[in-house]
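Task card 7
Instruction: Convert sequence to structure tokens.
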Amino acid sequence: MSPLFAPPAGARSPLPPARRALLLAGASAVLLGCAQPALAQAGAATGFPSKPVRFIVPFPAASATDVVARAVGQKLGDKWGQPVVIDNRPGAGGNLGTEVAAKAPNDGYTILWGTVANAISASLYTKLGYNFTRDFTPITLVAKTPLVLVANKAVPASSVTQLIAHAKAFPEKTAFGSGGVGTSNHLAGEMFNSLTGSGMVHIPYKGTPAAYTDLVAGRISVMFDNIVAAMPQIKSGQLKPVAVTSARRSQALPDVPTVSESGLPGFEAVSWIGLLAPVGTPQPILDRIHQDTLAVLALPDVRERLAATGAELAPGTPAEFDAFIRNEIAKWARAVKASGAQAD
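Output:
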């Protein structure tokens, strides 16, 4: 008999043997039942992943987010022994793909590549099919990247000062493109207009790849975009870099000045990319994804590959990423309000 149910020495048990057996069986069932959730949680990550993992990238192929997601996804797939499938879901400034991820099963097999666009959308849109801070659990920030102001080669401006003068002289002919209303490259352009009075016309596209087509062809003049996506066109000589939007010069373009040092002190607009899972994803799985992602980001070839694109790796804890997201939402809300931009 278990000592938990044994009567004092020399005393008669108040319960008959059959009754005591039933109580013991019941107690065992209760203890086993309490242990089941913990066992399930502990075992959740043991066999993870046992099938392909889907990375939802809410932007087109060849976009900055896509480039980083594919680099990390390939290495995670090798580590896990399971394919990591990149699922591009562009549209509505990243909101279509984000909503798909928010409604996905919270089993760890669907992961969202969230971006600065999500922080902007929180105030830009009055109606969203998801709540970024409520419907997702942050895993880790992956990288921060400055935007770079690039221009068509025919634009007679190679500096911020020259661009401002050109835009003021020919406002109807100086259009800037973006990946859509409310994206970071759109708001960066609006901030630039507001501070300089340049009056450049905004032309939104369904993703930056389409904007690049028109920018290279000369149908628009300039664009602020994530340095990761802009580097191929800069390296090939198709576009010329004018300035970067970070507080310090980018290691990828050390000879290109910042907008701030080019006559607009304090101008800063930085993009970012990070991993999030649908809320309710088991903690052991979140821990596994976090640990493995940090291990992949520490690989020399991954660091070199992403550094060459201009991405600055910035992994951290889930709590740090959560705080970062909330600060970004507040910061971009002020920018949205100042620009007067609205989308629904």
